[in-house]
Backbone:
């Protein structure tokens, strides 16, 4: 019987995008014949996994896991909203969140290599991901995650598309209210002092352009710019925002009244920043008609 080397398995996986163990099984069944093993995988998985790998995954779900002072938030993507309701896909996201919380992997590659089995696929999370691509027929990817430890945690999930984890000390109800507030108002930092410099510069640039258009004298224009920047900082910093449950007080005032301190928050919104493919049906039909004429 031919020797099934790790290199051969890796080559078959790279070509087919099939799970590692499935590649090994196929090579074993094919007695080391690479082409025959590839054919066996195509029969078993269709060629769904390989074809799906290049497709954009702009839909998906956010999942969280909290156990005491250990927790995680993760975004797992797919191609269509339909798959976000698939039980296997949801289980994959929840399983991945637990793995992040328990193992604190360094990156996506380290997460994917962790032991995990589901729906008959394994032995790693990556093998399950690729196996489900073949089973469901859509590309899936682990986009981002964050692990938490060392402080009390509160989470809020708005459906499956928005997820928040808040790190805090004090009252849990107040912390959960803050998590809900973050999901609704989407602050970019805890305080004005922590707003990223690039965002401030972008806002300042817009304000300067408006000031120039106004035709005001230079000293007044400068005050207009500074006023706009300060207004922006208050609008995007959590502590300065008006609390969603009581707009008569800021989040900072609400927390002080509840004797609670928030030391950090993480907000994931599904697909944020991913360029979605927009299908032009008319253009697609026209292209097909043109191709048909050329071949006629």
Residues:
């Amino acid at each position: 019987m031919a020797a099934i080397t790790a290199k051969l398995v890796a080559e078959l996986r790279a070509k087919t995008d099939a799970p590692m163990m499935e590649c090994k099984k196929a090579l074993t069944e094919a007695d080391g014949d690479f082409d025959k093993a590839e054919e066996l995988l195509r029969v078993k998985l269709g060629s769904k996994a390989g074809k799906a790998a290049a497709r954009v995954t702009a839909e998906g779900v956010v999942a969280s896991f909290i156990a005491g002072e250990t927790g995680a938030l993760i975004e797992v993507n797919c191609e269509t909203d339909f798959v976000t309701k698939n039980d296997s896909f949801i289980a994959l996201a929840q399983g991945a969140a637990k793995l992040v919380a328990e193992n604190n992997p360094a990156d996506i590659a380290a997460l994917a290599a962790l032991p995990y089995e589901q729906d008959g696929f394994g032995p790693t999370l990556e093998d399950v991901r690729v196996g489900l691509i073949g089973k469901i027929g859509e590309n899936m990817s682990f986009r981002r995650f964050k692990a938490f430890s060392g402080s009390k945690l509160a989470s809020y999930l708005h459906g499956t598309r928005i997820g928040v984890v808040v790190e805090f000390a004090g009252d849990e109800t107040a912390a959960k209210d803050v998590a809900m507030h973050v999901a609704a108002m989407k602050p970019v930092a805890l305080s004005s002092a922590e707003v990223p410099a690039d965002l401030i510069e972008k806002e300042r640039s817009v304000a300067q352009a408006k000031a120039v258009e106004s035709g005001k004298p230079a000293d007044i224009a400068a005050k207009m710019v500074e006023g706009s920047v300060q207004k922006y900082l208050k609008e995007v910093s959590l502590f300065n925002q008006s609390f969603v449950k009581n707009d008569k007080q800021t989040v900072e005032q609400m927390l002080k009244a509840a004797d609670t301190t928030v030391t950090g928050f993480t907000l994931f919104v599904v697909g944020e920043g991913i360029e979605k493919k927009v299908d032009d049906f008319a253009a697609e039909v026209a292209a097909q008609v043109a191709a048909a004429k050329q071949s006629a």
